[in-house]
């Protein structure tokens, strides 16, 4: 398994897409923090640093896309047959992808956290607002956003294995976040809506209140729920890949 994980990580290092997604993540974070600051004098409120740093969690959209590429990208590039011929036990291949892309999600999380911290620190200096780096809530937000990035990378692998078509998988995932989850949330009511995937990610990133009146969801509860989604999609990724024909 270790060799398979190493091979998947090697694949990630030899293509441009991860670097492009990483670059877009940094642009989203810098743009988000800047927009937050310029839209109002938000940095002077008690929760301002957490609100700014939480953009590192919103960048999990890109680790989601990265995870989708793990399997669906191989189908698109017609390399999946060679992959499964070299390792006939498909469950091991998918397991390696889940581990490798989880590691990649963690790498994204570190870069995203650094960028969010730097952008927030710079704007605090410009606005003459102190940034307390000893604040426990601040670091809980950073840790939660890191978990959000990793979990969405794993979920992405499951989505890519389930749908296999790269364009359809990415479109479906982004449509869920941008539109469908909101509609589903209205249909099922607030009590259940707060446990939907993006809502639990928001809770993990310490931002439950910024995505609708969903009621209190603790960061720990959000972490547990999102971990459950990641485990579910990992099982889906393995089950669908093992049972279905490659073509």
TrEMBL record:
The chain crosses the membrane at residues 20-40, 52-73, 94-118, 138-159, 166-188, 220-242. The keyword Protease does not apply. It comes from the Bacteria. The keyword Transmembrane applies. Keywords: Membrane, Transmembrane, Transmembrane helix. This is ABC transporter permease.
